[in-house]
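FAQ

Q: What does a record look like?
A: Structure on top, sequence underneath. For example:
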């Protein structure tokens, strides 16, 4: 079983913001399989799907981005998942918009959700999928206003295509592992 964890913030006011692209990724995958989200055994929502013999638990932490580690640990404990069974999906403002970057491990790179997960697990040894949200220059209102801002129409068009490819990359991870997915999806979405 794989735990696919999309990061975001739970309140409606954060819906469709750049910071919630991780939520959108797992929501798109759940929708593709007709799987509804329900309350998990902790502060998270979960949807279950099967693909090519693999069971995937799609997780949306309801703890806010900066405390995502609490929900990740609760989901891992309940589902008896190992770090090698998880894929965390989050935004990355340092990647060009529409770029996917899969890694088998690594630092938080300034992403507060990843930072809290690393602290909570006591390890950087888990797969992650970063979705580029394309910060091109320092925003006037600061970084948090950028990540908590809504996508423009052009950005939304790029993100819609990116989410389609993101779904493919998640399923590839689940069936073939992180190395295979990295080799096929670490590139800008065209």
């Amino acid at each position: 079983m794989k735990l696919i964890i999309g990061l975001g913030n739970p309140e409606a006011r954060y819906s469709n913001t750049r910071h919630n692209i991780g939520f959108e990724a797992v929501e798109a995958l759940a929708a593709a399989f007709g799987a509804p989200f329900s309350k998990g055994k902790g502060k998270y929502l979960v949807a279950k799907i099967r693909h090519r013999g693999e069971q995937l638990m799609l997780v949306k932490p309801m703890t806010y981005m900066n405390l995502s580690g609490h929900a990740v640990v609760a989901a891992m404990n309940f589902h008896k998942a190992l770090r090698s069974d998880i894929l965390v999906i989050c935004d990355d403002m340092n990647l060009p918009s529409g770029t996917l970057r899969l890694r088998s491990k690594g630092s938080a790179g300034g992403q507060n959700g990843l930072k809290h997960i690393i602290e909570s697990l006591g390890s950087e040894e888990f797969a992650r999928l970063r979705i580029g949200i394309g910060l091109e220059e320092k925003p006037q209102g600061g970084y948090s206003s950028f990540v908590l801002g809504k996508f423009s129409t052009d950005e939304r068009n790029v993100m819609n295509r990116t989410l389609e490819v993101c779904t493919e990359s998640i399923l590839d991870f689940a069936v073939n592992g992180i190395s295979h997915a990295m080799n096929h999806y670490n590139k800008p979405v065209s």
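Q: Is there anything notable about this one?
A: The domain at 2-185 is CATH 3.40.50.1470 (Rossmann fold).
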